[in-house]
Amino acid sequence: MQDRLAEEKERLLSYLVKEGILKTPEIIRAFYKVEREKFVLEQYKEYSYADTPLPILYSQTISQPTTIAIMTEALEPKKGNKILEVGAGSGYQAAILAEIVGDSGKIYTIERISELVDFARRNLNNAGYRNVEVYCGDGSIGLREKAPFDRIIVTACAPKIPNSLIEQLVDGGIMVIPVGPITHIQRLFKIKKEGKRIKTKDLGFFAFVPLIGREGFK
Ligand code: SAH
What we know:
alpha/beta, binds S-adenosyl-L-homocysteine, 9 strands, single chain
């Protein structure tokens, strides 16, 4: 199976590069380095490099590789950044970011379902990531004790952009977040904080699981 996975990984990543979805060298390197098969459930391992979301536990999903690629490029992560992820899920997105920020950076990822906190911690440990800390809690209000963050990535859909998250971004910081009604199509936004101003760019339509919490859905 290892050979087949390697072949499928090569096919998927060269497609993402050829289409211009992955374009930044450090991000491409991270996608090659991280083994997605270490973040999916045993029964879905053979589909690790299919360009599709995969079920994890508690009806949540590890996002589709194309979506993760678009979100990671939009986030513009840099070596040494301190990044907050809301919605740890499997830990895969956190691993990609950990590769990019390197040892001088740090990833904080927060997850509301405690079994998924364990799942993400276990996967990140097995894969050898030491610069990621997984928290259990409501990330719709951010992670005040570790703020501010250079970047914030939200991997579940919010009803509106949470104020707490804007507050916890540094000046010049970037946030990527899906926003929209639970049952309808959602839009992915790239937000840049410039002093008191917020610049917003619409990245198009996507589908995410809901962000549930104080500044999310009830
Ligand atoms: N980034 C993940 C995909 C996560 S799916 C990966 O790479 O695998 C979105 C996750 O957000 C789910 O696990 C869900 O439980 C979590 N979530 C939803 N609302 C949340 C909240 N308010 N705080 C933290 N996590 C939340």
